[in-house]
Design brief:
two-stranded antiparallel ribbon, 67% helix, 2% strand
Length: 255
């Protein structure tokens, strides 16, 4: 699937990445010198696009929505940097492959999530986002302590994917709906859609069983049925369809 289908949010998506790009320059240079910031095209796109598309579903596109798109991406980037940190440092390796610099960069990005909340008057989302960060870290601990879960404990593996991938997408969809004024019932559906979307993506990327992926795909489609019948609903449906193959989505790298 091509990102051309999401041309309606192209301008706003670029604004999100402009916010992020501007924060990657510090006095010591570009933070990419000190931690790996290479992500696949889908990871550069999917979380901000989910926020923007959901907000548009309820006729809302404001600076706060743009900021929320950047915030969830800051959280994703920081969590990924921390997850990649090796258990022990090798002083002869690239500093980005060490321990100290990536920790500092990850903490810096987590800090940017908080200041962006404050700067844009949406600090009331601090608690739900902080809870999501806690779940991300819990998933990381489970993943490191159960490296063979994918073959030895499938239910635990699904829980790890839920914590590491799906919870942030669920929160992104729900908070975008809340910011856009969606009814409470719709916010519950958006949370279910985001959670199922994240499970489809996470399980597909890890080459997990088709039956489990289909289960979450069906849940996502069921959640969509209750949402307003607008163009953005069709885009969300196209998005979930595109994620059923590991390389099913392509869009230009913008970070």
């Amino acid at each position: 699937m091509s990102g051309d289908n999401f041309a309606v949010i192209k301008k706003e998506l670029q604004s999100v990445h402009d916010i992020i790009r501007n924060q990657l320059i510090i006095k010591a240079g570009h933070v990419g010198q000190y931690a790996h910031l290479e992500f696949c095209p889908t990871d550069n796109f999917i979380r901000p696009a989910l926020v923007l598309t959901v907000a548009r579903l309820y006729n809302c596109m404001s600076p706060k929505v743009i900021s929320l798109g950047a915030i969830v991406q800051f959280i994703f980037m920081a969590s990924q940097i921390h997850a990649r940190i090796p258990e022990t440092a090798d002083n002869n390796r690239d500093p980005r492959d060490g321990t100290q610099f990536p920790v500092l960069v990850g903490d810096y990005l987590f800090g940017k999530f908080f200041t962006t909340l404050c700067d844009n008057g949406i600090v009331h989302y601090l608690r739900p986002l902080a809870e999501i960060i806690g779940r991300l870290n819990e998933g990381g601990i489970l993943s490191k302590t159960n490296p063979n879960a994918i073959t030895e404990n499938e239910s635990l593996f699904e829980e790890i994917v839920k914590l590491e991938v799906a919870e942030l997408m669920a929160g992104s969809a729900r908070l975008a709906g809340d910011l856009a004024g969606a009814p409470e019932e719709d916010k519950s559906l958006l949370h279910e859609f985001g959670l199922s979307l994240g499970m489809v993506y996470g399980l597909t990327q890890r080459n997990f069983g088709h039956q489990q992926i289909q289960k979450y795909f069906d849940r996502a489609m069921q959640a969509l049925k209750g949402l307003p019948n607008r163009l953005e609903k069709d885009l969300l449906e196209k998005l979930i369809h595109s994620l059923r193959t590991p390389d099913g989505f392509s869009i230009r790298k913008v970070v």
